[in-house]
Amino acid sequence: MLKHGIVYLIGAGPGDPGLFTIRGKKLLEKSAVVIYDRLISQEILNYANKEAELIYVGKASGNHALPQEQINALLVQKAEEGKNVARLKGGDPFVFGRGGEEALYLREHGIAFEIVPGITSAIAVPAYAGIPVTHREATSSFAVITGHEKPSKAVSSIQWDKISTGIGTLVFLMGVENLEFIIANLLAAGRSQDTPVALIRRGTYPDQEIITGTLKDIVAKVKKADFQPPAIIVVGDTVSLRNDLQWRENKTLWGAKILVTRARAQASSLLERISDQGGAAIEFPSIEIVKEPDLSALRSAFSKINNYDWIIFTSVNAVDIFLEELRSNNLDIRRLLGVKICAIGPATFARLAERGLLADVVPPEYLAEGIIKELGARIKPGDSILLPRAEGARKILPEKLQERGAIVDEVILYRTVTTSHINQSLMDEIRQGLVDYITFTSSSTVTNFVKIIGTEYITNFNSRVKVACIGPITAQTARENGFTVDIMPDQYTIDALFNSIVQDFKSGGKHI
Ligand code: SAH
Fold first, then answer.
1. Catalytic residue chosen out of the listed positions 1, 16, 92, 174
2. What CATH number does the domain located at 257-286+419-506 have?
3. pLDDT per residue over 108-160, tens digit each?
4. By CB count within 10 A, which of 253, 263, 440, 471 is most buried?
5. pLDDT value at position 61?
């Protein structure tokens, strides 16, 4: 008999992918099926195994979610097929997450399960807004309450008289539509009308929205602002601590929306830096790196590698593929003994260094021109140079080296192609130019980005969005494609690009 799989009921946390547990991530990485709800961020789903089947069971806008019975049946069905299932839920699975129901159903059907608690939005969302749910001398208790109870219900399951005055901080989930009813009940049961209240939407995300008031005026404020669910409602004296404790809003890039167009595999360092500073980093991978299927030219270069005087690496990708291939041909870096290495810039230098190779030369200017200037004097006529790089890279480098009498073997390791999978709502947002900055880190990110969104939308960008390019070649390509380039750092690195954006934003760049 086929062995049944296990179902992992995993809490995915409140939104910020950094608030997902290590245990949850480990199980997600190895599950064959992922069944997930609304409010699970794409970054977390990206941890799923590439081969895994992803099934969405949440509510799409306007549509209904899959009924609970069908979700239960689906969990059992997949487990009975012998597959391990990651059942991902927002926040914690046992806090208004119907995790208990699913676990009971699994037990009844003889399916093994594990529970992985998550950080619940009930505590984390207020925390990200600078509101502690307890505070010495202010509040010694808190409760998490459903805000979903129908006002028409004859007998309330919520004991309003007890919670209203008996508990310090009250956190309502799923309550925005019922706000008026909730507030009326609290007031009727004796809670002071001056009690502070906060509503927090998209909590822990870089675009979290907060509205504060008191039991007396919050309903009117929410109406006026047309504040939309889903959100959390926090009622209690600790809400006013936000005046002193708000912290995210103090971050340098708070409020900045920045588009990152690099290939997914390379985007992470820039994305991370942006979010660390409180900015909304939007991943829009316009290119994918595709390894050249036929690498026989590289293998033949390996076979005579010691005949080369220099190897020039002009990208991190080239380093990675070169060394991967070396390894898969059963060779190691000792083969490179005696061959001098040039790296185009610090990132390429660092990647080589990670792999145990210290480049002999890094030009001060991180461009092909920089390499030519720096190597020009060192190269003797007849020197042999290996240039492993991307298809379509600029010809200037091999040409200038040849003019100096060098013999250049250009070997194509990879090409960049246009990404096909872009989420439609993100695409619409971008076409309207609804971001503050767009970053281009190579000419191919520019050309492929334009291919994806369509040239007709570029005018939307120039009026609203600041265009940041890593260096002069990328900037030139951007201009040729109709962009106005606003930002270009003095040094052509990701670090410098990032710092220039920070400087621009601080000096009022796009603050709203
Ligand atoms: N199990 C979840 C709660 C599910 S109920 C948990 O432990 O967090 C769904 C409700 O949670 C929403 O209606 C909203 O009130 C709240 N919620 C979840 N994530 C939120 C977020 N990022 N910001 C604000 N409210 C959130």
1. 174
2. 3.40.50.10090
3. 999 999 999 999 999 999 999 999 999 998 899 999 999 998 888 888 889 99
4. 440
5. 52
The beta strand positions in 247-330, using DSSP E, are: 257-260, 280-283, 287-291, 310-313
**57 phi/psi in degrees, rounded to 5:** -120, 10
> Which atom belonging to ligand 1 lies closest to the Cα atom of 122?
8
37 is catalytic: yes
**pLDDT for residue 397 is more than 70:** yes
Structure-token match 């009622």, residue found: 235
CB 144 within 8 A of CB 122: yes
Does residue 451 carry a pLDDT above 80?
yes
Whole-number average pLDDT of the chain: 92
Which one of 26, 30, 59, 380 is the catalytic residue?
A: 59
Its pTM stands at 0.81
The CATH fold assigned to 7-118 is: Cobalt-precorrin-4 Transmethylase; domain 1 (3.40.1010)
The label of the residue with tokens 């699913």 reads 102
Q: Is the pLDDT of residue 217 over 50?
A: yes
**Superfamily of domain 123-248, CATH level 4:** Tetrapyrrole methylase, C-terminal domain (3.30.950.10)
